């Protein structure tokens, strides 16, 4: 029995999620939501994304790092050579720890490769377009995912932009 797989992402109106190895905004409110959504759950992250936040695992979350570099290792984290291998490792960790879901936290290429295995999307829609972004989130197909929650969040004092927190669930397969 596998646990649900979710994606946690912040996306600009034009699909941008990153620029020059970083996020093109400061969103303290979203970082608090990210922490609440991922704490205690195994997370799948690409090597470049891990390096973008300091190269060390985030506390309180078992990490599975996707990398083609067989010599890459991080203390306290599992590495995997492919998304499929990483997903299997994260599911094992979830079973061992009793975690309710596996969270995928990026980057863009990891999101594209894992989308077919995802059950839930936790999307922070950032109310701006980023002209010079270089990393994008795939379009959310409304035939596959249904938006079941959405909350408008005004920009707090440490937020660059207002946002909308949305939750999408995969629609049941129809035969």
Automatic annotation (TrEMBL):
This is Dihydrofolate reductase. Keywords: NADP, One-carbon metabolism, Oxidoreductase. The keyword Oxidoreductase applies. It catalyses: (6S)-5,6,7,8-tetrahydrofolate + NADP(+) = 7,8-dihydrofolate + NADPH + H(+). Gene3D superfamilies: Dihydrofolate Reductase, subunit A. Its EC number is 1.5.1.3. InterPro entries: DHFR, DHFR-like_dom_sf, DHFR_CS, DHFR_dom. Pathway: Cofactor biosynthesis; tetrahydrofolate biosynthesis; 5,6,7,8-tetrahydrofolate from 7,8-dihydrofolate: step 1/1. It comes from the Bacteria. The lineage of its organism: Bacteria, Pseudomonadati, Pseudomonadota, Alphaproteobacteria, Hyphomicrobiales. Key enzyme in folate metabolism. Catalyzes an essential reaction for de novo glycine and purine synthesis, and for DNA precursor synthesis. PROSITE patterns: DHFR_1, DHFR_2. It comes from Pseudorhizobium endolithicum. Residues 4-170 form the DHFR domain. Belongs to the dihydrofolate reductase family. It is an enzyme of class 1 (oxidoreductase).
């Amino acid at each position: 029995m596998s646990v649900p797989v979710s994606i946690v992402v912040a996306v600009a109106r034009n699909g941008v999620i990153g620029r020059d190895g970083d996020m093109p905004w400061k969103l303290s409110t979203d970082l608090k939501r990210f922490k609440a959504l991922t704490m205690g759950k195994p997370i799948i992250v690409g090597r470049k994304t891990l390096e973008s936040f300091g190269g060390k695992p985030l506390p309180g979350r078992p990490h599975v790092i996707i990398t083609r570099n067989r010599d890459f290792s991080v203390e306290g984290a599992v590495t995997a050579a492919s998304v499929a291998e990483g997903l299997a490792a994260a599911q094992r960790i979830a079973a061992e720890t009793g975690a309710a879901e596996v969270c995928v936290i990026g980057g863009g290429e990891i999101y594209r490769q894992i989308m077919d295995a995802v059950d839930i999307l936790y999307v922070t829609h950032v109310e701006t377009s980023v002209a010079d972004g270089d990393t994008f989130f795939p379009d959310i197909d409304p035939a596959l995912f249904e938006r079941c929650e959405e909350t408008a969040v005004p920009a707090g004092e440490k937020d660059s932009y207002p946002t909308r927190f949305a939750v999408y669930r995969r629609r049941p397969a129809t035969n």
